Amino acid sequence: MNRIYKSDIHVHSKYSNKPTIWALKKINCPESYTSPEFIYKSAQKMGMDYVTITDHNTIQGALEIAHLPGVFISTEVTAYFPGSTKFCVGKFS
After folding, report:
1. 62 neighbors 36 (Cβ within 8 angstroms)
2. Is the separation of the CB atoms in 30 and 19 below 8 Å?
3. What are the CA-CA distances from residue 19 to residues 1, 10, 29, 49, 68 (Å)?
4. Angle at 60 between CA 64 and CA 62, to 5 degrees
């Protein structure tokens, strides 16, 4: 039987310090204050097989824990289009 592997692929750390959510932008509040180490330990406690951090437009959080078992590098990229207030978000692992 094939095994199903678990990973949360939408997690922000303290390195997501430039919010994309309008309400957080308005008050200049980061999307997370959580350290990468705490995210890793929490994911392990929840039984995740793999851990990644998808901070906005940076891989700094993922790099901080990259040496630990089961970690892979990811980011959440925001792209703004000229003449539009909408944006596109993509996750890259």
Report:
1. yes
2. yes
3. 42, 14, 7, 28, 27
4. 55
Question: What amino acid is encoded at 88 in this protein?
Answer: C
pTM: predicted TM-score of the whole model, two decimal places: 0.82
- Give the Cα separation of 12 and 87 in Å (integer): 18
DSSP secondary structure of 21-68: SHHHHHTT--S----HHHHHHHHHHTT-SSB----BT--HHHHHTTTS
Tell me the CA distances in angstroms from 73 to 6, 7, 11, 23, one per residue in order: 16, 12, 12, 28
User: What does the alpha-carbon distance between residue 65 and residue 73 come to, in Å, rounded to a whole number?
Assistant: 9
Tell me the pLDDT of the chain averaged across its residues: 88
pLDDT, tens only, 31-75: 889 999 999 999 999 999 999 999 988 999 999 999 999 999 999
